């Protein structure tokens, strides 16, 4: 009960209702984000239908190892985030588990960004940035890489925001400013984190697999 | 209950009202009170409105003469672009939702605040940041792309400050999404006991439907602007056909947002008018359920008509036919609303107070704009008038005639509640009539000029069109006066206006049951709702006699 009064915010008088509203709000936001990435994927689809061969050729130039390792990293972070959210709902004595899982989640998120940085460096060295001196001859290949840079960049920004949110949670929970048990912020952050990894689940086949399947 | 109580002369409330609850700058800039945030928005968008108005004043002056006597073509392009960008994204889109919506939504559903008060304040700061980007674009030299940022012009050829302007619109889009999320959660989670969905005032329904559009359409606009920025700044070839890109793709993405955006402007306006007409006709709104379904239908169908902006872009004839059909369909719920307002007026005890005059003006202008929209939904007529002043007149009737008239209607209706002051009614009536006259004088000639072939966006034109342009510019001067008048007498009323009672219009609705101006948490105790909205025949409100509050308000003037 004392936990709940520490977590209760204006204008709510009922903690259960506040928690429900937070969850509802983040779902509405996620619907909005879906449209955001949906428009990007639509752009990709339209371009790929126009230039299937160029997209296959460009897809073969990506480094599938970086992509696959990053997929594994991000999915593992999704697991630790889910464990943190579940543990926070279960019992107050699981506070250390919640903290540990959040820390691992943030580290894995950071690892993803670092690996992506190495991949970006390789792409730049291979002249895969659209513009003068682009490595591939087909016009559609530039389009593929335009999409690649844009969408991985937008995804990395979303992930960085996620790392910031998780780090903030670690900070307030570590200093015991807010209780870990039943803290709706953990649940809301977890939902956001899962959005970021689900988006990657769509991006991985679109970026790394064209031209490799056949 | 004595007459004195009804007249609002209650003993002083325990707490100061929201306006006097703290007077430091910090108490305003760090507030989470939805009413104060509404005031912050009101001040901000008023500034934007007059900035956009100043730009178009120069444009209308230029068009007095056929041969370009005042501005260079370059300056002209930058001025009408600035006018469009500011007016669409910084005035029309946030005007009613972020001011009246913020102020009234919690009051109307009996809540102490919106669901996420800090997000609400954050959204205002985003709007300010976005405005700074856009104004920077103007000060640094301007943008000449028009408000639509059409590619490939905006991404490859224009050498103006497209990046700053597009970034401004991108950021204000996030403010819009945040507000939409907040309003949807508030409507779902914070309704007072007894406030069921079909007891919600129509204004709340309108804001709810608008929020759905904001949340679902704005991200697509954000992406299309991001793509323009990516192509312009980083050279990614998304829209450049020479490097495999698709120049039409931008128009599809842009109008997928920007057609629904018209309903972001007009649905809240419909909500305002649906509050005012029953109040001043002393009748329950006709067909409440149909009004709700019509608004949801407009919000839904609005997502499927974007292609009517592209009849001449080279999209397939089949796509054009489908979009034409869907565009006719959306006229049906719009017409339902107009018929229901008319039916609500029928045999009503109509009093022509200033909010009612503005609201009736809305119905007239919206109907004209809507009917001219049917012309544009027909492919052959559309091809004839594409990119002429006919289109300019049409969307100004809807967006300005509709949205701005309703904004002023709401401003006059809720002014006593928001400020606790009464304004001089005769001035307000004069301004309402002047606005209607000035508006028609400005935009009606543009229908004729456009139909006869005068293209939009040109600063010179053949002499035969001069008569229409002179009429239009003269009308714009009248309209400008009509916009300046309320600024004068409403400011005057803040200092010298009579004190407003709780419910000066004798209206129904929870917002009128709290004091004027309301206390910080809106209600002294949690309201309960036990009747349908617009219950103008309940006890004490029988047709034929004004409730005492109403008589009091009229005597005060």
How would you portray this structure in words?
The complex is a heterodimer of chains A (214) and B (557). Chain A has helices at residues 2-7, 15-50, 52-61, 64-90, 95-125, 139-174, 184-208. With 214 residues, chain A is an all-alpha fold. Chain A has a single domain (16-209), classed as Cytochrome c oxidase, subunit III, four-helix bundle (Four Helix Bundle (Hemerythrin (Met), subunit A)), CATH 1.20.120. In chain A, α2 (15-50) runs parallel beside α7 (184-208), α4 packs antiparallel against α5 and α4 runs antiparallel to α7 (184-208). With 557 residues, chain B is an all-alpha fold. Chain B contains 18 helices and no strands. The A-B interface holds A 10-11, 17, 20-21, 24-25, 28-29, 31-33, 35-36, 38-40, 42-43, 46-47, 50-51, 54, 130-131, 138-143, 145-147, 149-150, 154 and B 32, 106, 111-117, 177, 180-182, 184-185, 188-190, 215-220, 222-224, 226-227, 230-231, 234-238, 242-246, 249, 253, 256, 521.
Into which percentage range does the β-strand content of chain A fall?
Answer: under 5%
- Principal-axes geometry of chain B comes out as globular
Tell me the fraction of residues in β-strands of chain B, as a range: under 5%
- Average pLDDT of chain A, rounded to a whole number, is 91
The ordered string of helix (H) and strand (E) elements of chain B is HHHHHHHHHHHHHHHHHH
- What is the CATH superfamily of chain A? Cytochrome c oxidase, subunit III, four-helix bundle
CATH fold type of chain A: Four Helix Bundle (Hemerythrin (Met), subunit A)
Give the structural class of chain B. Answer: mainly alpha
CATH class of chain A: Mainly Alpha
How many structural units, i.e. domains of chain A? Answer: 1
Task: Determine the structural class of chain A based on helices, strands and strand pairing.
Answer: mainly alpha
